[in-house]
Every structure is written in structure tokens, then in C-alpha cells.
Predict the structure.
Amino acid sequence: MQFGANKGYIYVRAEYPIAVQRFEKAIKQAREYGVLGKKIWNTDFSFDIEIRLGAGAFVCGEETALLESIEGRAGRPRLKPPFPANVGLWQKPTLINNVETYANITKIILNRS
């Protein structure tokens, strides 16, 4: 399945500098290994990740408030509909997941039928 995205964002609360450092290191390594950036594995596919720091507002756990914060505004929830899958980050369709979802991807793939 392809979504046509070429950029992803990791939103981290600024109060967690060690997490930010670890994400920065992991992203740098991924670029060095050729799994992030332009023409991944010598294909036409390009994808990169950018870290966005948040102010730690609890409300940014709500997906549309998170999008507002990534866009540089106060993290306040948007009225729904429209939902982020239709009108999300910078008014484009957006897939948004939390760290727990990503942490379980390997388990999901290994246990699929």
C-alpha cells in the first residue's frame, strides 16, 4: 500500500531532551544506512523524518491539537469533521499514530496470518 507521503514528523515534548537526542541519532543513522532520505535503496522513493518539539501541553495527545502544534500554532483541537485522514497537516490527508502503535509494528508483522 502506498500513501504518497515523502515526509514524516516525530513530535517530542521539549521536556525530554534525552529522547530528542536519541531520535536525532537514530534519524542520522537511518540516513547513513540509506533508509531515509532521497532515492531510498536507489529507487525513486524518497522519505525523510523531521523532529518537531512541543511545549508539553497535555492536549497535544489529541491528534488535531498535535497537528496544530506541528504547524506552529497553539495546540488546540480542531472541530471534526473533517478528520485528519481527509484534511490534516497543512490541509493535506494525514496519517497519525502514537509511539505505542509504532512500537508494536514488528509484533504485528511477525504474528500476521
